Amino acid sequence: MAHSHGTKMMQGMNKGEHTMGKEIVKGSVATAAVTAGGKLMGKAAKHPVLVFGLGMVAGFLVYKYRKEIIANTTKAVDAGKDFVLQQKENLEDIVAETKEESV
Question: Which of 13, 55, 61, 63 qualifies as a cystine partner to 17, CB 3.0-4.6 A?
């Protein structure tokens, strides 16, 4: 009888822990891709056909995941705007407190 401890462990984690695990995996994959990409770029400088092929693959992936890319970019821009507004409010509060203390 085979036990699946990994599934039980994943079920026991809350959503934040599960999301964090996914982010770690994404980071690891990105790091591996960058490392492999560096070696590939060294070879690509000697083979223009390889550069063309890489461009085709990159174009295909951008086209395939365009909706996700746009959604994530929009989410990041909105989060940036919210952060700036929050910091502006914090700065205004600090300035108001400073003015109250000086009076």
Answer: 13
Q: Domain map of the chain by residue range?
A: 1-47
pLDDT beyond 50 at 9: no
pTM for this model (two decimals) = 0.46
What are the start-end ranges of the H helices in the chain?
A: 5-12, 15-44, 48-64, 66-102
What's the start-to-end Cα distance of the chain, in Å? 76
Q: What angle do CA 5, 9, 10 make, to 5 degrees?
A: 120
Amino acid in the structure at residue 56: M
Tell which residue, 67, 66, 71, 39, has the closest CA to residue 54.
39
